[in-house]
Amino acid sequence: MNSMSAMKISIIIPVYKVEPYLDKCISSIVNQTYTNLEIILVDDGSPDQCPQMCDAWAEKDARIRVIHKENGGLSDARNTGMAVATGELMTFVDSDDWIDPDMYKHLYQRMVEDHSDIAACGVQMVWEDETPPRILTRMGNHVLSKEEAMQAIIEESWLKQPVWYKLYKTNLIKDILFPVGKYHEDVFWSYQAVDRANKISISDHIGYYYLQRNGSIMGEEYSLKRLDAIEAKVQRHAYIKENFPALENLSAKDLWFTCIYQGQMALRNLDGESAKRVIAYLEKNLARMPLPSCTGNLKETVWLAMSNTNLLKTCKIRNTLRIGL
C-alpha cells in the first residue's frame, strides 16, 4: 500500500439484542488485513449481555471504543458513532452480519487506485436455515461518475441502498444524519452521500455477508412503518428534480412503482381498514406526481396508466397475478 495507508477507517457498529451474532461480527472486524481501524461499538441500550460483550472486546483490542446509551434505534446509534469518529474514512457494519478478512483492504485500494470518494464491494445474503446463499449485488467492476451513481441508486442497479457495504470519505458524509425513528433509513441517507461524491468505485469482491434472520427489522411482517420508504423517496424525488433534472422521470417511475408495491403488500398483510388507509396515503402522494413515461416498455406503461386510474384495483390485480411480489 502507498502512503495513504496511514488513513484510519472508523467502523460504526450499532449493537442491540444480537447476543448470538455479536462475537462473529466483531471477530471479523478485528481480524481485518487492513489494521488501521477505529472500531466504535454503540450499545443502544441492549437489554441482554451485549453491553458486557462489547466491554470485553474493548479489553482485548485497543482499537475498540464502546459507547453505552439509552435505546434510540439504529439511526440514533449510527449518528452517535459518527459524531465521535476520528478516521479519515468511515463505514458501517450491522452487528448480526460479518465481513471478509480483506474487505477494507480491498475497498481502500479501490479508492486509492480510482481516486474515488466512495467504494462499494459485493454482498452475499446468507440465511440461518438451509436456504442457499445468494449474491445481492451485481457482478462487475466500475468507476461511476456522480450522475451515473445517482441513476444506479434510483434503479438499484450497480448501487443498492444499504450503507454497510461501502467505504466513505468521512469529511463528505459526517454531517448527513440518519433519520431517527424511521424504517428504511438508508433510503433517506444514501442519495445524499452519492451527491457528495465525484467518483464511486464498484467492485464485485464479495466483502460483506448479510444475515437474514427472523427477528431482524427487515424480517418482520409488513407494518405501516414500511411507508417510511415512500416518505424517503418523496424527499429524494424532490432532490433529484432540483439537482439532477435528467433523472426526474426515472425517479418518478421508481416512486410510482414503489407505491404500487406498498399497496400490494398492504392488501396482502393488513386488515381492510388499515389497507384502505395505506391506499389513500399512496394516492395522496401520487396525486402530486406527473405520470412518468416508460418509453419502449409497454407493460410498465399499462400498469402506470391503470394505477393512475384506480390504484386499489391495480394492486388487487397484480396480487392475483402474483406480479411484483
From TrEMBL:
Keyword Transferase: yes
UniProt keyword Transferase, yes or no: yes
Enzyme Commission number: 2.4.-.-
GO MF term list: glycosyltransferase activity
A matching Pfam family: Glycos_transf_2
Top-rank lineage group of the source organism: Bacteria
UniProt enzyme class: transferase
The name this protein goes by in its record: Glycosyltransferase
Organism: Butyricicoccus intestinisimiae
